[in-house]
Amino acid sequence: MSKYFGNIEPLVFAPDSDGLGFRHYDADELVLGKPMKDHLRFAVAYWHSFGWEGGDPFGGRTFDRPWFPADTMALAEARADAAFDFFRILGAPYFCFHDHDVRPEGASLTESRDRLNRIADVFQQKMEAGGPRLLWGTANLFSNRRYMSGAATNPDPDVFAYAAATVRDCLDVTQRLGGENYVLWGGREGYETLLNTDLGKELDQMGRFLSMVVDYKHRIGFKGTILIEPKPQEPTKHQYDYDVATVYGFLRRYGLENEVKVNIEQGHAILAGHSFEHEIALANALGIFGSIDMNRNDQQSGWDTDQFPNNVPEVALAYYEILKGGGFTTGGTNFDSKLRRQSLDPEDLVAAHAGAMDVCARGLKAAAKMLEEGRLEAARSARYAGWQSEAAQAMLAPGARLEEIADAAVARGLDPQPVSGRQEQLENLVNRYV
């Protein structure tokens, strides 16, 4: 047990309280016939919550935590004690981690693997004693300078091999800890300039790497889902996994569309020029929706600022698309969010997560009510009602010919008139729920 969080007690649902606690998140409240906790499947990001030191491009560490710099196994274990104490206070059912978050890197691949397994032993004991489950694990293939030109896409085959060994070890640990997913987060899989880049070769390397990960998953009997996290413009200018559509095209090219799904982050969706709900809806339409990272960006900054969610209407529209698609299966809501560098106290970390969970709870309930009452879906169905006719369906059937459709349109003297999309009325409708 860590002493870092002092006398902070486990949070409870207390809607009228002014202290730490939940005002909207009641874990066992039924929403569409299922407990709220099973809809939301909250997870804490180990890296931002316990690994990030509060630095920015112009200044170093601001957080004074007793396990920093976590460059020894003793400090890594102290960090694990604090993390699992925090999970207990928050009542979070899941957590997520990178290998680099939980153990210091060793002098060799073997030492790094052994250290990861030692920390996994610590995690396993804490999980068996009532700690949270593992939503997903992943490998840090971006921080070390060896990855400055990518991991799977690196021009040096030794880096490719090093990354393969790292992912193998992380996937083994994820399986051992009962992880429900494994994420490939391509932080450096992109390029700065075509002047020194063979784009086609790098894409083929990335496709081959992912195919081998999928093959290995099946060989070891890992039952979880392999996820890719779409990620634009960060840190390289051209990312190969830019958004959901780009990832789907990549998966189709390498025959992996039935093996791999996506973990969608709100901040990345915005950087790609999309809304969060657009990316979720598209992933559902393409059959590759898996999980989400719930955070937000600063509207005045063109960077992924990883702030905790606080916009209920935005969150409601995201969960509406998730619920409409059938909800999470192996995925969940991971808070890939970090405190502001001036938020120094342990209580700040608790309050940030509690507030974010409340925002998500409010969004979920609004989304469920919208879906249950069906007014949005009724308006959508009415807009496409003309396609229900036999003649309209025949135009989309296999064997339909462009010239036959064109001749029929001429024969009927078609002169279709536009019909209002009623966008403002539908926006007003949504605002009644949020």
Count of extended strands: 12
Give me the CATH superfamily of the largest domain: Divalent-metal-dependent TIM barrel enzymes
Number of helices: 16
What's the architecture of the largest domain, going by CATH? Alpha-Beta Barrel
Shape: globular
Strand content: 5-15%
For the CA atoms, what is the radius of gyration?
24 Å
Strand order of the largest sheet: 3-4-5-6-8-10-11-12
Order of helices and strands: EEHEHHEHHEHEEHEEHEHHEHEHHHHH
Poorly predicted runs: none
Largest sheet: 8 strands, parallel, barrel
Which percent bin holds the helix content? 40-55%
Average pLDDT taken over every residue: 96
> CATH class of the largest domain, anyone?
Alpha Beta
Number of domains: 2
**What is the multimeric organization of the chains shown?**
single chain
